[in-house]
Amino acid sequence: MPALFQEEYRALRPRAPIPPFDVRFRRFTGLNTTIRLREGAIKVHLSDLLEGAPETVLRAIAHILLAKLYRKPIEAAHATRYRRFASSDVMLRQTERIRQSRGRKKISTAKGATYDLDEVFESINARFFHGLLGRPLLTWSEHLAKRCLGHYDAAHNTIMVSKVFDRKTTPRYAVEYLMYHEMLHLKHPVKVKAGRRCVHSRDFKAEESLFPELAQAKEYLRHL
User: How far apart (Å, rounded) are the C-alpha atoms in residues 160 and 107?
Assistant: First the structure.
């Protein structure tokens, strides 16, 4: 593996001396990759899911990581090759299995100081889904997260809502919209089309537009 990275380094930086490379596989919970330049040496950590991957894919990863490290343009052929590999049915199944077995989902509680997520879920389920959606594990986040306001984790069948909304000043429609949005992810799973992940499909967006206070909710979220 170091030799492969050295070759890609030489292609990207033909005049620069080649630094020492330390390339290792790690037990990540997905197709994670990291690259760091420390004291003149380059340290690379690759998910062990990539062990046994075709050389063309590993070469594409080496090119992409090095290009990002040195802020060089990423060749389209390498980007396409890796994207097709990562989004293949085989890799998606393996990644999902690893996330379920290795991933640790920190669960807080569904009952907050102001809002009970279980109650909110059942209310939305009855209003918009005829009560037919099975209830996943519901939890408030541990911290007052503003970057990730809500998230549906398919691997652990969990909906998380940021604790920043569990306060008296938060209008109920904002919490309901977040729950509704994540419930739509439950109803409309991520699909892969032509090597690309489709997170918000046409059906997803059409159904999301039916939320009565959609405009007010989005406006509230913009001013957090």
Answer: 9
